[in-house]
Amino acid sequence: MVVVGTVREVNGPFWNSADGQKWSDSPAADDIPGRVAPGLYREIVLDIETVVRDDYNQAAATIVVIAPGGGERSQDPTVVGGGRFTQGEQVVLFLSTQVLYTRDDMFAATMPFWGYQSVFHVGADGVVVPDGAAQSVEAEQNLVVAPGDPTPPPVVRDFMTLDEFVAMVEGARSVRNEQSELYRSDPSVVDAEIEFMREYFETGILPEPPASDTEQ
Q1: Mind listing the pLDDT tens digit for each residue in 143-197?
Q2: What string of DSSP letters covers 178-190?
Q3: CB under 8 A, 24+ apart: contacts of 189-195
Q4: Rounded to an integer, what distance in angstroms lies between the CA atom of residue 70 and that of residue 100?
Q5: CA–CA separation, 203 vs 4, rounded Å?
Q6: Were both Cys, which of 13, 35, 143, 185 would link to 40 (CB 3.0–4.6 Å)?
Q7: Rounded Cα–Cα distance for residues 43 and 12 (Å)
């Protein structure tokens, strides 16, 4: 799903536990997915203005996006893993339904598909800027190079307008990867993964993996 919208709220950060509080214990492997560690996430309330791509009809007028990382000025090592968000700004987001693993459970959540690389900010001039690019440009402008030191390569600033960016995304299709991309993004696949993992953690027995479309 690819959407253009305005950030209504940036809530959190919250720790990935049932009560939203930091946790430091080390549960047994049978009680928690192995890849879960204490971490922060934010809930981004987004008012959608334009739906660019929505293969599974998931878009609504307002959606909640789960952005991994606690955001700037947080103590999370993956501060902006899910991108930077500011209340009131216009953004373009590449989203998919994914499994959000927490300390106590797992849930289906709408998240940036490739982390911060799926977040683009629309400036007041209508130019679309990748997440982090504005910070890179500002750092370059404030950089003072000592005499004799090499000058770092310039920041690429070949950005598109919002209309150009939307047109590019609408026409972008990878025939080779499309089937696997659709399969990984299908909400029913995410639900099956959650059911599979819950059964394993409850019984300790590895169930049969859910069948893919090619196996049915």
Answers
A1: 666 787 777 666 556 789 999 999 998 877 655 555 555 545 677 878 888 888 8
A2: HHHHHHHH-HHHH
A3: 190/97, 190/98, 190/99, 190/108, 191/108, 193/99, 194/99, 194/106, 194/107, 194/108
A4: 15
A5: 43
A6: 13
A7: 6
